[in-house]
Amino acid sequence: MRAMKQSTRWAAVFVCTALILLSAPRALATDGAASKDELRQLFQRYSEQKDEQKLGTLVYWRNVRQRERSGFFRSLRNDLNYRLKNAEFVALDPNTSMEYTLEGITFRPALQPTGRMVATYEGRANVKDFSTSYLIGAKDGRYYIDLAVPAKSSR
């Protein structure tokens, strides 16, 4: 009986671990894109396919905390309920602050931002057209959606 409980416990641990690994983005994958235009094209394609996992490969994940990962995917899931009309790059306003403080922790982009990608979605019913803006950064010749990380772990 005890051996059966032990094996059941290990099976549960295995299943939970497998689910976490399958559902988490590839944390240190170097996907991104070779150019800003390729990043935009991949973002459009994966959005049309409503492929959350592939969209996750366009993000630079190093040092991004679980809370910010979850927030990114929660926002993305909401956006994927609508049809993407356009994704375009816009220059950064040089006066824009790239830091913020939340619960005593200062955050900044994980990479040096090179611009913004603005995704515009078609509204429906009571929702008018809306957009989501993503910082874009580059590392080792690859372009990524750039999320915030605690300041001590950025770049």
Give a verbal description of the structure.
By secondary structure, the chain is of the alpha+beta class. The protein has one domain. The chain is 35% helix and 30% strand. The strands form 2 sheets. The chain has a 5-stranded mixed sheet with strand order 1-7-6-5-2, with helices on one face. Strands 3-4-8 form a 3-stranded antiparallel sheet, with no helix packed on it.
Strand arrangement, major sheet: 1-7-6-5-2
**How many helices?**
4
Helices and strands, in order, run as HHHEHEEEEEEE
How many strands in all?
A: 8
Global structural class: alpha+beta
Describe the oligomeric state of these chains in a short phrase: single chain
Number of domains: 1
- The amount of helix comes to 25-40%
Distance, first to last CA: 53 Å
What is the radius of gyration computed over CA atoms, rounded to a whole number of angstroms? 18 Å
Strand content: 25-35%
Largest sheet: 5 strands, mixed
The residue ranges in which pLDDT falls below 50 over 5 or more consecutive positions are 10-29
What is the general shape? globular
Mean pLDDT value: 84
